Amino acid sequence: MRIGSSIFLIALGAIFAFAIAGDVVPYFDIHMVGYILMVVGIIGLIVSIVMFGPRRTRRVTESRTMVDPATGERIVTNDSRDTGI
Prior knowledge:
single chain
């Protein structure tokens, strides 16, 4: 469930809970269904923001140049690593 479907469930639940008369179906409490849809939408919204939200990542690139004292050869090392939450 993504953000769009969570907002849709919240809006649909609000319509069921507040905008429709309670006696549409005699054996079915439409207001309770609206409240349940709103709660499920809010939970889905929180989960989608936490799980699929932007993550802070960094790429660290480090380059070192050294000269081998025994041979005089120049040695270049490149290290890259990703860090994040």
